[in-house]
Design brief:
Protein name: F-box domain-containing protein
Helix content: 25-40%
InterPro entries: At1g61320/At1g61330-like, F-box-like_dom_sf, F-box_dom, FBD, LRR_At1g61320_AtMIF1, LRR_dom_sf
Number of strands: 20
Shape: globular
CATH topology of one domain: Leucine-rich repeat, LRR (right-handed beta-alpha superhelix)
Organism: Tetracentron sinense (Spur-leaf)
Radius of gyration: 29 Å
Largest sheet: 15 strands, parallel
Pfam family, one: F-box
Strand order of the largest sheet: 1-2-3-5-7-8-10-12-14-15-16-17-18-19-20
CATH class of one domain: Alpha Beta
Oligomer: single chain
Strand content: 15-25%
Distance between the termini: 69 Å
Length: about 475
């Protein structure tokens, strides 16, 4: 009898049939079978150059990129001094917008590392196109080239009925501007490295009645932030570069409805806080660098500046304070000069937790009698570290008394991040466990190795030894101390 060559008699569970099924499943393109809106969302997560390349995957993907609602173009850094990469980048954006088939653009972003003056007409046309498509989120990041060219924003952008989020970097506004702004739906505005003025800021605020978040980073030329809108709840001001025009000036901030304030970076000017009755959260992640050659007077100047800030923030519920500020408070804690008293419930310490920070931390705890939550986050030392005369920090916490009312009556939760088990860390943990009479929970997160994210800082036997040491402290118990690695 002739032998059959087909597989009709094979069992459904036979190895050969299972292998054939497996091969067939591997050939099925399950991703291409997803609905359009899912595929468009996937493409929206890519740089547009990569999204366009995805069109070669199959017929299903060929034209999808032309309807992506989120368009982001990222210029790659040049490998040489030629202009070829710039031409290629401009042509990519142009071609994409010419072939674009979507009815609406939700987000449009351009990151250009070397903006040249000859780009201006192209950028104008891009903005005009996305405005016609009722763009909601616009992000222009146009770094100037070595020639110092800056893009001037077109007037038609100043009046827009669809923008809800706007981020501008290294762009300039074209004067005169009074009465031109109309961004009635704008809720978030971020301005980076842009020259401003008091009048310009007021014009922007007046034309943005729905604005909730204002982020000013490396912006120069303004002296007052008088924010009267009841909608604007969050303000961030960040400096990192020296600006000679503001070294002797004072930035005044008045915002009766503001709820969150962040002051960040290197400051060469003072800041005066006024009329902030609704403020709930504040961040002081600053280093103040006065133009003063005398070290001791410089410390006094900086302490007085910091003290004035803390006095005006005494009513905030949550305060995050950086390591430089903590070190300035250390200089005065050692002189038995207290920090301004506060009503804060939550204190976040962004600290390197070395000997320079210890008295400052003690000072903040003393001035926080109502404190319920303490978070300790490790960071790098400040650029301008403070020098403490004849202070080595040895056994600082062991020799300290239960100096704070919060330790006796209110502190319930402590969390310590990036813990590596250093002496000052262990001493602080032991001090809190010994003196925090109302403590309910302490959570300690061990630090991961920076170069091996998948590996923990502690080996199992080290973690066990560390755990035993922690639990040997007075008042420590497994339900009160939680170790996370």
């Amino acid at each position: 009898m002739e032998e059959r060559s087909d597989n009709s008699n094979e069992s459904p569970s036979s190895p050969k049939r299972a292998r054939n099924c497996s091969d067939e499943n591997e050939r099925v393109d399950r991703i291409s079978g997803l609905p359009d809106f899912v595929l468009l969302q996937i493409l929206s997560l890519l740089d547009m150059k990569d999204a366009v390349k995805a069109g070669v995957l199959s017929k299903r993907w060929e034209r999808l990129w032309a309807s992506v609602p989120d368009l982001f173009f990222w210029e790659s850094s040049p490998d040489d001094d030629s202009d070829d990469h710039e031409d290629e980048f401009v042509n990519l954006v142009d071609r994409t917008l010419i072939l674009y088939e979507g009815s609406k653009i939700r987000k449009f972003g351009v990151l250009c590392y070397e903006y040249r003056a000859w780009f201006a007409s192209y950028v104008d046309s891009w903005i005009r196109f996305v405005v016609r498509k009722k763009v909601e989120n616009l992000d222009l990041d146009l770094w100037p080239s070595e020639y110092g060219d800056h893009y001037e924003l077109p007037r038609h952008l100043y009046s827009n009925a669809s923008l809800t989020k706007l981020r501008l970097s290294y762009c300039h506004f074209r004067p005169p501007l009074s009465g031109l702004f109309s961004w009635r739906l704008l809720t978030s505005l971020s301005l980076n490295h842009i020259p401003l003025s008091d009048n310009l800021i007021q014009d922007i605020l007046s034309g943005s009645p729905s604005l909730q978040v204002l982020d000013l980073s490396e912006c120069s030329g303004f002296m007052h932030l008088n924010i009267t809108s009841p909608c604007l709840k969050k303000l961030m001001v960040n400096y990192d570069d020296y600006d000679s025009t503001t070294s002797d000036s004072v930035l005044e901030i008045s915002a009766p409805y503001l709820q969150s304030l962040a002051l960040i970076g290197l400051w060469y000017r003072k800041c005066r806080l006024m009329n902030l009755p609704c403020l709930v959260q504040a961040k002081l992640l600053i280093e103040v660098v006065p133009d003063n050659g005398d070290r001791d007077n410089g410390y006094e100047w900086r302490y007085n500046f910091l003290r004035e800030l803390l006095e005006n923030l005494h009513h905030v519920r949550d305060l995050k304070i950086g390591t430089w500020c903590i070190q300035i408070l250390s200089t005065w804690e050692l002189k038995i000069l207290p920090s301004p008293s506060s009503k804060r419930k939550c204190l976040i310490l962004d600290t390197c937790l070395d000997k320079l920070d210890l008295p400052g931390i003690a000072s903040l705890l003393k001035s926080s009698p109502d404190l319920e939550t303490l978070l300790v986050s490790k960071t790098i030392p400040p650029f301008y570290s403070v020098y403490l005369h004849d202070f080595d920090g040895e056994n600082y916490w062991e020799s300290s008394e239960p100096f704070s009312q919060c330790l006796l009556h209110n502190l319930k939760t402590v969390k310590i991040f990036d813990f590596i088990g250093g002496d000052h860390e262990m001493d602080l943990v032991q001090f809190i466990l010994k003196h925090a009479m109302t403590l309910e929970k302490m959570v300690i997160y061990s630090k991961r190795l920076a170069h091996l994210n998948w590996r923990k800082h502690f080996m199992p036997e080290e973690l066990l030894e560390f755990t035993e040491e922690i639990l040997s402290f007075p008042r420590a118990s497994p339900h009160a101390v939680i170790l996370l690695s």
